[in-house]
Amino acid sequence: MRGAVTDLLTPHPIGQTLPALFLEDGFAQRFCSALDDVLAPLISVLDCFPAYLDPRTTPPDVLDWLASWMGLDAARELPEERRRRLVARAAELHAWRGTPYAVREMVELATGHTAELEESGGTMWSVRPGTPLPGSARPGMLVRVRTGGSDGNGAVDHDLLTRLLTLVAPAHLPWRLEIL
Questions:
Q1: Do the domain assignments include residue 60?
Q2: Average pLDDT over all residues of the chain
Q3: pTM of the model
Q4: Measuring CA to CA, how many Å separate 13 from each of 2, 10, 20, 39, 51?
Q5: 57: nearest Cα among 81, 41, 91, 90
Q6: Domain region containing 153
Q7: Is 118 within the bounds of a domain?
Q8: How many domains does the chain contain in total?
Q9: pLDDT of 57-107, one tens digit each?
Q10: How far is it, in rounded angstroms, from Cα 18 to Cα 29?
């Protein structure tokens, strides 16, 4: 957490901005110096504010705050590097919500694995009347994640991934998650 930082100098000492009458006053200068110690971390944060809003450079606790702005409270359980990539791409994923692209990207960002999607619908055309329709009559989508490999990187939290996929999966389509 941010707070008092030992020996952090302020780039804008308050004592120097006082009227001339107080420039020679020792008490006024000491009082302002104490305020400088309190305000120096705040000025530093404000000077570096763009870095706090960038998921690649922000401190971990501010990263959680940015994640909450994007509706990614569940992402707190992810490793920090994955969280940073997910928060950085969150606005794009929200724009693509309900598409296979968003679902695949969410799985990739959250787990490091690729997703296979099986959707019930389909389109086709035919010159013969009565041709069977593609897909199935029951709408749905299956999100399959294969974690395979013996590198120890295969563990995927089903509940966490379900909460994250809820943010990007099509709202009108029932779906289920399968982890192999």
A1: no
A2: 88
A3: 0.71
A4: 20, 6, 15, 9, 24
A5: 81
A6: 74-179
A7: yes
A8: 1
A9: 999 989 999 999 999 998 888 999 999 999 999 999 999 999 999 999 999
A10: 9
